[in-house]
């Protein structure tokens, strides 16, 4: 399976943005890429090896952002019961998928929900 180049570019921008946030670290549990802050995941990035479609999962507690994310092509509440807590899976490959800028906004919202207040404040100070 070939990964569409524009989707891969979006995935790479989102990953780079997530890892640039204060205290963020990349880990690879279950063979997937995740970004964590304070040992807690704030974005699941899946795999970029073409074995599965590119996508990301973020926690969106703002009702407007949550509804907007769910309106994206192929988006759905995250599995394993995470959807009940506001986690949304967003595919990056379909026609009409969100652009990298919007995806990064959602990553930042997810980060702010998970990160300790001092790290979120550090982000505000930038």
From TrEMBL:
Tagged with keyword DNA-binding: yes
Organism superkingdom: Bacteria
Key words, A-Z: DNA-binding
Gene Ontology molecular function, alphabetical: DNA binding
InterPro entries hit by this protein: YjbR-like_sf, YjbR/MT2646/Rv2570-like
Pfam families for the chain: YjbR (PF04237)
Protein name, UniProt field: MmcQ/YjbR family DNA-binding protein
UniProt source species: Streptomyces fimbriatus
Lineage: Bacteria, Bacillati, Actinomycetota, Actinomycetes, Kitasatosporales
